[in-house]
Design a protein that fits this description.
By secondary structure, the protein is an alpha/beta fold. The protein is about 35% helix and about 20% strand. It has 18 helices and 23 strands. The strands form six sheets. A six-stranded mixed sheet has the order 10-15-14-13-11-12. It is elongated, with a radius of gyration of 31 Å.
Length: about 500
Amino acid sequence: MNDLKRIKSALISVYDKADLEPIIQKLNELNVTIYSTGGTQKFIEKLGVPVTAVENLTEYPSILGGRVKTLHPKVFGGILARRDNIDDKKELNKYTIPTIDLVIVDLYPFEQTVASGATEQEIIEKIDIGGIALIRATAKNFKDTLIVPSKNQYQELLTLLEKNNGESSIRDRKEFALKAFDVSSHYDTAIFNYFNQDFNLPVFKQSITPFNELRYGENPHQKGFFFGDLKKIFEQLHGKQISYNNLLDIESAVQLMSEFEETTFAILKHNNACGIASRNNLSDAWKDALSGDPVSAFGGILITNKAVDKTTAEEINKIFFEVIIAPSYHKDALEILKQKKNRIILIQKSNSFPKVQFRSMLNGALVQDKDLKTEHRNDLTTVTKKSPSDKEVEDLLFANKVVKHSKSNTIVLAKNKQLCASGVGQTSRVDALKQAIEKAKNFKFDLKGAVMASDAFFPFADSVEIAHSAGITSVIQPGGSVRDHESIDFCNKHNLSMVFTGTRHFKH
């Protein structure tokens, strides 16, 4: 069965006219009758190609400052008419409505206008009405008409016209219709989310473009995709394609590093920090971050908030790692880091991220506000007789930033703004603490004078008892247990200081 249909007429109404000229010339070569409006019509006329104004077809002018141009039965009748329906044909003849076989649209740039910081009135004027209606009508009637819904499909259309000499198959038209509904639904979602900023209706609508197909998902037998524009966040200077698991670790690394202003280096593995330190210079920060767990650092994700210099790069280059992220790199440092061809080297260009998080869950989605709370000195309430020293407060705040970005249940041990060890992802807080202490001992850390941070309250005093035995002298936790007094009493009896933040930082 031959389902090819020749394109005899086309309606073109686009915002972005770049790369449109070859299509116009090809349609003219194929003797296609072209209808157009406004700026697109003028563009076509300048090319010397015959074009009929939509106003001449409808016998009605563009009105309301251009808000109403194509919304007319003579336009939509020509698009929606079913070519094999006798009654439709009779009505077309009765009202002198020509059929339209191809519609090319490029919508007003609503999202770009919002992002530009434009006024509300300017944003409202960029809500396309006629274009969306044309897209939906043409896509609905894909059996007979072909829709090109955005500039992203210009080249695809030109290839089709050249390959089939102006004809399209039912599969071609249905595939373009699919892409059209993708464009229209994305556009409407963006508009809804803009309006919902002022009302916060409990409605979950997300449409994220573009997408990247990854090598695989979390495991080789799983497909994986990333939806979003990584180029807005990073510039990749070197290395292989970023993987699904790389992205999980990169996300954790970036969110953790956003907490620090002082020169800091961190190493992450499986979304948790296995080493992090803040120092006066980057090389020292790297060395102390690495000493936190040089074993887990193998194959890890490295991140810093300062430019990577040659001295630091030489030290970093001694170990195997997957990814390094920094705001910039010295030229000689890059030469060193690029010695491994697969090593992913990223410049972080932006630290602006959505304030709402979501994940698929059962047959739906979980949505929550991002945890944007970062504790400072004035957020701490001393609940023991002994107050932490200034040095201990620095370490407590440092440890609390790390614990916030570690998998629950988690305990973090820190000293001199360096991660000594952490216990993460444990079903028991005591187990998390024991894991951290054991790990610190394995890497020869002296925990005398170190501090302990917990992501949630201690239900019993056993954790502070164990911490005291290991040499911990100060504790930071949210508080809120009905048995807080037991932990406080133990601290008072054994000369430990403890502060409450009042904020839990679970992370699952």
